[in-house]
Structure formats: structure tokens, C-alpha cells
Specification:
By secondary structure, this protein is of the alpha+beta class. A four-stranded antiparallel sheet has the order 1-2-6-3. Strands 4-5 form a two-stranded antiparallel ribbon. The termini are far apart. It is 21% helix and 35% strand. The chain has helices spanning 6-9, 17-22, 38-48, and strands spanning 10-13, 27-32, 54-62, 66-69, 72-75, 79-86. A hairpin with a 2-residue loop joins strand 4 (66-69) and strand 5 (72-75). Part of the 50S ribosomal subunit. Contacts protein L29, and trigger factor when it is bound to the ribosome. One of its GO terms (cellular component) is ribosome.
Length: 99
Amino acid sequence: MANVQYYDVILKPIVTEKSMAAMGEKKYTFLVHTEANKSMIKEAVEKMFEGTKVKNVNTMNLDGKTKRRGMTFGKTAKTKKAIVTLTEDSKDIEIFEGL
């Protein structure tokens, strides 16, 4: 496994209708490094966003989609998505505040 630091784990937040609705329950969705495990994701969220306490982390591996250009077929890159649930006494994540 590659040497993945905590600032390399979280790639970007996922902003969809479903993920925005889950923010009311303190659930935040992120696109994460494909080799990151749940404990690495928990550590990264708590270090990157001050005052947050992670209660639970759910992850899912997504296969790449098959794409076609003319007669040639290919696949997009595999991705990994994480849904992070914060505790009740935890602060909210600031990057989602203005959305």
C-alpha cells in the first residue's frame, strides 16, 4: 500500500441532492483515496476540520464506467466514496455551510 498521508485521503466533497439532504443528520459525503481505509478517513476528517468528532464511516468502492470512442472501448478510473457521520456534540464542517 502506498504511503498515504491524512491530507491525501480526502480528495473532494460530493455535492448532490441526496448528500445535501443527509447533512441535516450530520452525514457528509467525500470522494476519498482508493487505498484509504475507514480509520484513515476518520483520522483525516478529524485533523482537517477542527472540532469534529467522527462517529461512523461507511465506504463504498465504485468501479469505473465503460466508455466508448468510436470502435474503441475503455474504462474510467475506479473511485471510492465515504459517508462520514459526526457525533451530536461535534461542530459542523465549514465547507458545506454556504451551500
